[in-house]
Amino acid sequence: MVRYLDPEEHPELGEERRHRSSPGQRLARVRERNAALTGSAAIEAAREVALRKLDARACSRAELTSAIEGRGFSADLALQVVDRLEAVGLVDDQAYADALVRSRFSGTGASGRALREVLVRKGLEPGIIERALSQISRDDEAERAAQLVARKRRSLAGVPRQSAYRRLCSMLARKGYSPSVASNAVRDALDEWHAGSSDDDEGWGWEVS
Q1: N or C: fewer beta carbons within 10 Å in the chain?
Q2: pLDDT, tens digit, for every residue of 78-127?
Q3: How far is CA 69 from the centre of its chain?
Q4: Quick check: pTM over 0.90?
């Protein structure tokens, strides 16, 4: 026999159902509630969304406006809140782009096209992107590419030169380096490795593929 429990007499049932709702359902309720807010209440709630994002990590204007709108607030309100955060120095797209480029370049070795794609996804303006990328000189790229290639030396022992060349150039291309920078870095490294090897060194007597 199925027992019926009146939600009025058992409020914990409503709480249990609330916890069982899907993330999509919970977000829909949040969006509906936020959309109904007006005046200072709406501004404060939207500002809280932005500040929570900034507490986690630095963000671009576009990321913050998208986050605010995604919680049910209007585009106009999102713009108003982000403008205010920018005015007080909590949002700075150029500083954000500059730091992101430096971090990715020094950390993962990403450069050129790969970095540009990241900055575009962040919603940054073209002028800001170009200024951020200009921090990396041609010499910086060549040096970083050489470092990335050097890390692969041990794993390529015994690999025919042409195969090693293709693998290394592909690796640099995925990280955003131009064909000329990649080719120069790889050729220089392969020539150095071969010149520094002896007939007794296993793997560095290059074979022709």
Answers
A1: N
A2: 999 999 999 999 999 999 999 999 999 999 999 999 999 999 999 999 99
A3: 21
A4: no
What domain count does the chain have?
Answer: 3
Identify the domain containing residue 54 by its residue range.
Answer: 18-91
d(CA 104, CA 90): 22
Does 106 map to a domain?
yes
Residue-wise pLDDT for 125-181, tens only, equals 999 999 999 999 999 999 999 999 999 999 998 899 999 999 999 999 999 999 999
- Name the one residue in this structure whose structure tokens are 């490795």: 193
Euclidean distance between CA atoms 51 and 177, whole angstroms? 36
58 vs 93: CA distance, rounded Å? 10
Residue that terminates a domain, selected from 31, 63, 91: 91
- Concatenating the DSSP letter of every residue in 60-108 gives -HHHHHHHHHHTT--HHHHHHHHHHHHHTTS--HHHHHHHHHHHHHHHT
